[in-house]
Design a protein that fits this description.
six-stranded antiparallel sheet; single chain; about 30% helix; alpha+beta; about 350 residues
Amino acid sequence: MNEKKSIVFILNPISGNHDKESLPKMIANNLDANLFSYQIKFTEYAGHAAEIALQCVNEGTDIVVAVGGDGTVNEVARSLVHSDTALGIVPCGSGNGLARHLCLPMDIRKAIEIINHCKIESLDYGVINGMPFFCTCGMGFDAFISLKFASSKKRGPITYVENVLKEGLKYKPEIYEVEDETGTKKYKAFLIACANASQYGNNAYIAPKATMTDGLMDVIVMEPFDVFDAPQISIDIFSKTLDKNSKIKTFRAKRIHIHRNAPGAIHYDGDPIMTGTDIDVHIEERGIKIITNPEITEVNPQPNFFLNAFSDFYNNINNVRKDIEKQGRRIQAISKVFQKKLTKL
């Protein structure tokens, strides 16, 4: 008889909107007791998940499961890189970017069932200025929105797109010098994002064709856009077509160096921090073991129910154009129509 695998569930009690009191019982009722010997550990402060996960690695634990949102997943995962301990995910956050990219169920019971199948793959992860990321990192408007989103009382896709539409029309682009294996290029851009996986979370696809198995990152350069471009960009983000937008330039690289004129924010998996003028990003190929969905590849097959709402909004943009005379009125008019359409979801 095969020996049971050791598994530790690291649970963030304040992440997301799920009832955390019921989770231990759900784990007990749904985890295959014939395959696993498990423990549950609760985080008590910021960074605690990383400490627990590192202890698990040192003790030779087979699997560590992050139960929470993108922040908890990043904390746990960065302690597991280049080890024999595999990452499992039970998504309980507001964005769940890595879980969605890997097509893991948002339903807790079904996510535990994926763990029971225990299909483990070695996948890529990225590093920006020494900080590991598993979905995306970025700078400029990308990091600015992360700051806004992190401070928002409301979370979820509506809040995210509201921030993109409203703040994007006021944000001033920067000049970036980007060096990769082919040389150095200069861009005037709203943002530069580096994607190991396809999305930010909430099915917002910044790099629709990104994969965690090619040893490369997708680099996305978003050029300045105006009030009339914003709705289409929003549609493209949620419909996996952003790479076809005329305001987007993309290329793939294993590592890049970026220089900008002034210090500012960057983000890794949506967590913003301040840093200097020089930024290094690279991919660590097959550097982390992750439990994946045995029935689905990295291509997310789920239909996107936001698309119809955004398409409707975009088709009606002419209704507000005649009322737009100044930048402030543009933002107000678009926000009004945007919020009205989203109430119909």
